[in-house]
Amino acid sequence: MKRLLIAIACLLCSLAAFAQNAEEPASRDDVILYLRTMRSHDMLQRTMEVQAQSMHQLFRDMIAKEAGEVPPDFDTKFKAAMDDLIKNMPTDQIVDAMIPAYQKHFTKGDIQAMNAFYSSPVGQKVLQELPGVLQDGNQAALPIMSKYLSEWKDRFQHEFEQKKNSTPPTTKGSKAPDTKN
Q1: Can you tell me the distance from the alpha carbon of 45 to that of 52, in angstroms, rounded to the nearest whole number?
Q2: What is the pLDDT of residues 11-49, one digit of tens each?
Q3: What is the C-alpha to C-alpha distance for residues 33 and 39, in angstroms, rounded to an integer?
Q4: Is residue 47 classed as helix, strand or coil in its secondary structure?
Q5: Is 35 exposed, middle or buried (0-12, 13-18, 19+ CB in 10 A)?
Q6: Which residues pair with 25 in a beta bridge?
Q7: Rounded distance, CA 39 to CA 125, Å?
Q8: pTM for the whole thing?
């Protein structure tokens, strides 16, 4: 009976410690460990590369629609610009700037649980496969986004033209009509 009481007391103490730890704010070091587990620098770099590929096709389609043709050196210049953008991205500063957001939204317990997941084989697979998932997803979404952006731009231009045409021109020295009653 005595052993049972000791076991229950230990269990209650460990649950209380876990609950306290779960509500404790995440420290800077907790978040840094999580970001290392996530390989955030690598992930940011790979995500930017995937996004650059999607942006390349999106811009290419928009230019072709607007100008009728894409300049012959577009692909080379766009790739060079994206390579420069990615190469010189201040990744360390970006990751460092994100730490307070993680601290604001996640407790120490949350960060520990996320670390446990991303350290697991499934979590590592997620990290490995996510850029490819994003790339495939972007390829599937690109025609939809391209169509939507084109329609949105046309609608915006149409509304702008309507407002421009419906606004009476003002002459120098004249005042706008007083709408106060």
Answers
A1: 11
A2: 555 555 555 455 899 999 999 999 999 888 888 888 888
A3: 10
A4: helix
A5: buried
A6: 107
A7: 12
A8: 0.59
